[in-house]
Amino acid sequence: MSRAASPAFNVLWLQSGGCGGCTMSLLCAEAPDLATTLGSAGIHMLWHPTLSEETGAEAVALFEAVLAGEIVLDALCMEGALLRGPNGTGRFHILAGTGIATLDWVRRLAARARHVVAVGTCAAYGGVTAAGVNPADACGLQYDGRQKGGALGADFRAAGGLPVVNVAGCPTHPNWVTETLMLLAAGLMGPDDLDLYGRPRFYADHLVHHGCPRNEYYEYKASAEKMSDLGCMMEHLGCLGTQAHADCNTRLWNGEGSCTRGGYACINCTAPEFEEPGHAFLETPKIGGIPVGLPTDMPKAWFIALSSLAKAATPERLRRNATADHVLTPPQVRDIRKR
Amino acid sequence: MSETRLIVGPFNRVEGDLEVRLDIADGAVRAAYVSSPLFRGFERILEGRDPRDALVIAPRICGICSVSQSHAAALALAALEGVAPTPNGRIATNLLVATENLADHLTHFHVFFMPDFARAAYADRPWFGMAERRFKAAKGESVTRALATRATLLHVMGLLAGRWPHTLALQPGGVSRSADARDQMRLVATLAAVRAALEEHLFGGALDEVAALTSVAELEAFVRGRRGDLALFLEIAEDLGLDRLGRAYDRFLSYGAYPQAEGRLYGAGTFAGGQAGAVDVAAIAEDHTFARMEGREAPHPPFEGSTFPDADDETGYTWCKAPRLAGQPFETGALARQVVAGHPLARDLVAREGASVRARVVGRLLELALTLTAMSQWVRDLSPTAPWCAQGRLPATGRAFGLTEAARGALGHWVQVEKGRIARYQIIAPTTWNFSPRDGAGVAGPLEAALVGAPVRPGETTPLSVQHIVRSFDPCMVCTVH
Q1: CA–CA dist B465, B35 (Å, integer)
Q2: Exposed (0-12), middle (13-18) or buried (19+): which is A29, by Cβ within 10 Å?
Q3: R_g over Cα of chain B
Q4: Distance between CA B94 and CA B258 in Å, rounded?
Q5: pLDDT tens profile B456-469
Q6: Chain A residues lying within 8 Å of B64, measured CB to CB
Q7: So what's the pLDDT on residue B3?
Q8: Is B309's CB within 8 Å of A92's CB?
């Protein structure tokens, strides 16, 4: 599947109502690095706010050449929410040097793009920029929170036939972005490869719970009670890893990290409206002592039954270690011939 | 005298979006107006939430200063709770803040700043071939190598904070993740790899030698005959006169960084007119006269601050407010931090050439050497079986602030809690200081002052001198307005 003879896959990357963190994360790509990874798939960055030489008038000329059809745009990558405020004008983000709202630039460029990719939860659904009173009237490219619509509308399809591809995450893992672009460039991503919220299934068909090193604590409901405890964070500390769609604990971040490995809850940042959980992020809401959010696909009655059984069976080792910040009791070393 | 106007933007290779309006006469900038064109309203987003949610929301103001935003929020919450971090928590927090600072310095020099010297407009300069090979945007040898070094450095985050950006590891009482002896060894290896890369390619010499430089003369002697990127930068700086470009008010502010068992690695204070002073936090206020914000009648101390955008305002030319300390604009950043801390090279630089483009860049590179050396010691100071996170309890009512140093300088969060909810949250970020608009007295912000006199060549639409000056501040526009 060589693209050596094919023309480059042109990507234009714009930023609006976000923090730039998905780009900062993208630059952490390793083994191979970003340039090598993109090069391997024939992906050419036409312009990127962080990487490109062209600034000011040079950059605007390039955008206009794309609009005029003089340059083929294979993928428009959008990072950050689209700002519709104030009063629908989009003037909370005028693209510098142009006097035109970024919202308008994006709508016009999206119409020219073979694929449109939302990089990060803000661009996908609005994300943190749309939290609280949503001061800037922020939304995603094709979603406004969980509702279809957003800046481009529910019916939008890019020239290549796909709706907006939502590489959700706050931030995105570098390889979620590079692998999405590589799959698009290779023509290997179709409608069935996206989940209910338009996320690539190659990472969204996993749960953060998969590979969490706290799984043994989870199994026995040996729970952390305060920050820095080693136990499972689902019962008290707000962890949504059993419900969050992402492969963070099998893919890992910045070497060997993930949120739960870092000692804090998964806040389900790949999901629309994760920014408004309806309770404090690091606290688990409960009814009658039972967490409101149950593990994905698990019937409530079974969860309650298994939890009480697990709690009764919790080994002393896990009970002690769960509320400590380092291992107090190591697993027993047994003679494997004496079972 | 003919006067022309240039509107420059989108200004890339800065974090976020930026527009600069220039009035040009006689081949130089006569006046500059700096505009931050993006408003999101994080201070309003934070209102009404559980105060602990600030640890989730505030870092997401900025993907490049994420840990610093997190740290300021954690400090404000710690002050509300009356809790102090455990020694391990303090040291691990220092490691996380320092890692982000250094990663940002690396990104700035290699990815944001230097590629401008690889532009075709400089093809006639003697150093151009080298600059192009090493620093061509996105693909120069030094650009790609620095990104690899940065990725290695950020393994400190993966290990101690789960990931970067946007971690919840920094807590009011310390950190959420403990480290054991094996983790310490891994951190030693990571930092050693970064040190080796910097010594070989950036400095062309030992970090200790760079840290020990006491004057511009010693700096120039140090790079003589060396082939590192620092030597290349100084050669370019001399040829283009970057030591005479981009000077603002030479009035510096630092909140101080990296608390030790006693004192800080880099002390807090101001430095102006050759005199060191203390920071009077109560004398900080934000002026809205030229910001598109309501509340223009008088400057607002942050505990009484407000963020009500006024899109119809004709006077305002930016979403950025104008912070002033005792009524005056201040410059903040790595150079300011080292000047305030009293590093002899930083002091000699500003005594000779003020905060020039060259001085700002050298300030950052100097700090890379100083901070990385301190980090290696901090890793050894961690004590795996001692506590990592002290526990506090938030009061239902109260107010407090948290001050830290991001890579780009002084960052403060001011929070007021009523009935257990955030009633007011005000943030003043480093680039809010540096890229502020004019205030009610008509005094320009530091960048606006620094651009005056910048040479403009005939036909330039995005003058190179302006680009060098703007980028010398390492602006973070998403933090600026937030």
Answers
A1: 18
A2: buried
A3: 22
A4: 5
A5: 999 999 999 999 99
A6: 20-21, 24
A7: 87
A8: yes
Give the start-to-end residue ranges of the domains of chain B: 3-480
Asked if B168 and A22 come within 8 Å (Cβ–Cβ), the reply is no
Q: State the amino acid at position A246 in one-letter form.
A: A
Using one digit for the tens of pLDDT, what is the confidence trace for A247-275? Answer: 999 999 999 999 999 999 999 999 999 99
Q: Residue B481: CB partners within 8 Å, gap ≥ 6?
A: B36, B38, B39, B40, B318, B319, B320, B432
pLDDT at residue A293, as a whole number: 86
Taking residues A303-323, report their average pLDDT. 95
Distance from CA of A7 to the nearest CA of B (A): 19
pTM: 0.98
Flag if A52 and B137 touch (Cβ within 8 Å). Answer: yes
Residues of B in contact with A23 (CB under 8 A): 63
Residues of A in contact with B467 (CB under 8 A): 55
* Average pLDDT of the residues in B11-35: 96
With a cut of 80, say whether residue B206 has pLDDT above it: yes
Please give, rounded to a whole number of angstroms, the shortest distance from the CA of B376 to a CA of chain A: 19
Q: What 8-state DSSP symbol labels residue B108?
A: I
CB contact under 8 A, B63 and A20: yes
Cβ–Cβ of B171/A23 closer than 8 Å?
no
The two tokens of residue A272 are: 């629309």
Q: Which residue has the tokens 């009484």?
A: B304
CATH level 3 topology of B3-480: Cytochrome-c3 Hydrogenase; chain B (1.10.645)
Separation in Å, CA of B416 to nearest CA in chain A: 17
What distance in Å separates the CA atoms of residue B183 and residue B193, rounded to the nearest whole number? Answer: 15
Nearest to B163 among A34, A262, A282 (CB): A262
**Shortest Cα distance, chain A CAs vs residue B144, angstroms:** 8
- Tens digits of per-residue pLDDT, B326-338? 999 999 999 999 9
Answer yes or no: are the C-beta atoms of B93 and B413 closer than 8 Å: no
